[in-house]
Amino acid sequence: MKATDKKVALEMRGAHNAMKYCSQCGGPVTLKLPEGDDRLRYVCEACRVIHYQNPKMVVGCIAQWESEILLCRRAITPCIGKWTLPAGYLENGESVQEGARREAYEEAQAVVVELQPFALLNLSFISQIYFMFRGRLPRREFAPGPESLETRLFREQDIPWDDIAFPVIAETLKLFYSDLPGGNFSFHLKDVHQDKNLILC
Amino acid sequence: MKATDKKVALEMRGAHNAMKYCSQCGGPVTLKLPEGDDRLRYVCEACRVIHYQNPKMVVGCIAQWESEILLCRRAITPCIGKWTLPAGYLENGESVQEGARREAYEEAQAVVVELQPFALLNLSFISQIYFMFRGRLPRREFAPGPESLETRLFREQDIPWDDIAFPVIAETLKLFYSDLPGGNFSFHLKDVHQDKNLILC
Fold first, then answer.
1. In this structure, is residue A200 part of a structural domain?
2. CA distance B65 to B52
3. Which residues of A68-104 are buried (b: 16+ CB within 10 A; e: fewer)?
4. Which positions of chain B have pLDDT values less than 70?
5. Residues A94, A24 within the same domain
C-alpha cells in the first residue's frame, strides 16, 4: 500500500467530526497519526493534547399499550412529519434505561415501565450505536412533547411503513413484529448499512 | 429550588469534560443552559456553537477456550499488573462486535469468533457504557499485545478475584459464572456504582 493510500484508508476509518482548534489551549489542531496509534487523531500543535472522537449512543424504546405501540410524528429536522419511536442521544451521567425513559417522556410525555433490552443496532457509517428497549405504558397517557407533532398508538396492521423516519427505526419495528407472534423476545444485534439509493425522509 | 441549587443540580447532571476553547473558531466557551435545554453545555461566546458531550462506549469480550477464559494482565495505567478482560473504547466507524474483536487482537493477539451479546453495564458516574460479548477462541493462540504484560487462560477456580483491575470486569465475570452451570446465557443489564470505599487498583 502506498503512503497516500494508507493515509486515505486511515482517514476512512476515522470518520471525524471536523475540529480546527484545541479545546484545552485554543491552539491549532492537525489530523495526524500519534506514535503507537493506528488511527488519525486531531492533535494540538501547541500543547500536544490528542483529541479522541468516539461513537455516540442513541437510546429509545418500543412502548406497548395492550397490542398497540407508541409512535411520535417528528416536529424537527431531519424527517419532519415522519413517524418514529421515542429515542435520542444518551446524556453524560445517565444509564441507558434512564435515557430511554427520559426520551419517551420528552417526546411523547409518556411514562414507560418494565424496560427490557431489545436490540443494539450499529450505524457505523455515522458512528452511532442505537440501544433499544421494549417497555409498557402503565396508563393510556401520552401527548406530543416539543419535538413531536403528534403521538399515537398503532396496531401492527396500521404501522405507516412508508412514513417511518429512519431505516434504523423500521429495522427495530421489523425485529419486534418478528418476535411478537411467539411472545419469545430475544436480544438482537444488527448492522444497519447506509442505503445510497435511499432518500432518507 | 433556588437558582444556585438548580445550577448545581444541572452541573451534577452534566459530568463535563473540561473545555476552555471552541474547537470550531478558537473562541472562549462558557458552561451555560441553552434556550430550551435542561442541561448545562459548553457554548462558544464568539460563534455560538453548542458543544454536546456524550458517554463513551467500551467494548470487550469473555473469550472461551474449552472451560477456560482469557484474561490479560495490564501493562498500562490505571491498574498496572492487575487482570482484566480484553476491552477498550469503541472507535468511530466501528460496530460493537468489530471493536470487541479488535481489542482482543490488540491486547491478547487473539482471534475471537462466534461473538454473542452478553451484558451492558452502565458506569454512569464516569459516563461510560460497557458492552460485553461472549466468544470462542478457535485456536489456543494468544500472546500479550503492547498494553498487556501477560495473557493467560483461567479455569473458574483460578480466577484472581482479588487482582481484577476494575469492578465492572469483576461484575461481568460474576454474571458469566452465574449463567455458566446451566449453559443458559441471557443478556444482562446492570448498573455498576462507584464504591467510595474501594481502592480501585
1. no
2. 42
3. bbbbbbbeeeebeebbbbbbbebbbbbbbbbbbbbbb
4. 1-16, 195-201
5. no
Same domain, A40 and A115: no
Residue A124 to residue B95, Cβ atoms within 8 A = yes
Residue B196 lies in a domain: no
Enumerate the β-bridge partners of residue A61: A133
The Cα–Cα gap between B84 and B81 comes to 10
- Whether B118 and B150 map to the same domain: the answer is yes
Contact of A44 with A22, CB cutoff 8 Å:
yes
B38 class by beta-carbon count within 10 Å (0-12 exposed, 13-18 middle, 19+ buried): exposed
* Same-domain status, B20 and B46: yes
Is any Cβ of chain A less than 8 angstroms from the Cβ of B57? yes
Q: How far is A158 from chain B (nearest CA, A)?
A: 31
Residues 6 or more apart whose CB falls under 8 angstroms from that of B179 comprise B185, B186
B93-104 confidence digits (pLDDT tens): 999 999 999 999
> Which H or E run contains B72?
strand B68-74
| Phi–psi pair at A98, nearest 5 degrees | -65, -40
Interface touch A94/B55, C-beta < 8 Å:
yes
DSSP A118-133: EEEEEEGGGTEEEEEE
Considering the domain architecture, whether residues B62 and B138 belong to the same structural domain is answered as yes
CATH number at residue A170: 3.90.79.10
User: Which residues neighbour B95 within 8 Å (Cβ) at sequence distance 6 or greater?
Assistant: A122, A124, A191
Which pTM value belongs to this model? 0.92
For residues B142 and B181, membership in a common domain is answered with: yes
> Cβ of A89 under 8 Å from any chain B Cβ?
yes
Closest in A15, A26, A90 to B26, CB measured: A26
pLDDT in tens, A137-184: 999 999 999 999 999 999 999 999 999 999 999 999 999 999 999 989
Give kind and range of the element (H or E) at residue A41: strand A41-44
Grid cell listed for A143: 401527548
Tell me: do B123 and B64 sit in the same domain.
yes
Query: What is the domain extent for residue B22?
Result: 3-51
- Please determine, for the modelled complex, whether the ipTM score is greater than 0.95: no
Nearest residue to A170 (alpha-carbon basis) of A106, A104, A110, A121: A121
pLDDT at A14: 46
